[in-house]
Amino acid sequence: MLVSLFRGRLSPDEWYPALEADLSARLVRLPDGEQARVVEGGDARHPPVLFIHGWGASAYYYRKLLPAVLRAGRRVIAMDLRGHGGSDKPMDETLYTADAMAAHVEGVIDALGYDRLDIVAHSLGGGVALDVARRQRGRVSTLTLLAPVGLAPVRFLVLARMATPGAVAPLVRYAVPPWSIPLVVRALNGTLGDFAFRDVDEYWAPTRDPAFGWALRTLLHHYRLAPRTHEELAQITAPVLLLLGGQDLLVRAAESAQRVTSLPGWRARIVARAGHVLAEEVPQTVLDELLPHLGVDR
Questions:
Q1: Which CATH architecture has domain 2-294?
Q2: Contact criterion met (CB below 8 Å) for 135 and 232
Q3: Residue ranges per domain, the chain?
Q4: Mind listing the pLDDT tens digit for each residue in 143-186?
Q5: Helices first, then strands: H and E counts in the chain
């Protein structure tokens, strides 16, 4: 922890996947000039799997899943959402609505040149993926949701919005010291999870940009975190795997699972002692469910 406290934030060239031999990062330019950072690896001829992280995270969230999916014969792409990580953080509130964030992901898919792909998404990214799968029914082969928003009301949302008036956004870079990162990770885990010192560095690094805090606050207030309607969910034609943590403090696991019981092609599992960050906490459990859902041999 002393390293994280006194060395300063990681520079962008040190960010994940700097220490990974089989993965690389690049910026993808969209037609309007906006740039999105993607981490990718694997044979470009193999079927692609797009990984979308949640609020405040980055492609680093999927570091424990990407190598296994790559070894299973898939092309892997983990993007930094607009406002996160190394992607652009435009200061325009209209770009952080649910429709705008879905269009952003669709733009990245277009820029990457994929006609069809699988999607794995977590938390707020899960809400984005729900909308993408509904809007792009012919392009999503399978959808895997890890503790997603958009199925049940998010706990503590009213409190979080009350605690983040517009004036606090520029202060995020100063209000999130590195020692606070383990506290947040610990709170989001269930009884099965932990954190490493590298996690502190990676999750703290983007706070160097004042626009990062502004983007997080804007998403909290302007993104549609409310549950999608039954009619909207029924428009998703891809097979859906829903994984939830039984000790999730933010996403209501039982209520989310109940929402999808009548939807054809949906399968839900609650991991009893897991929390919100499933890919961090129980990566092998996620892989045991994800790889068969993708239809690959292990």
A1: 3-Layer(aba) Sandwich (3.40)
A2: no
A3: 2-294
A4: 999 999 999 999 989 998 888 887 766 665 555 555 455 556 55
A5: 13, 8
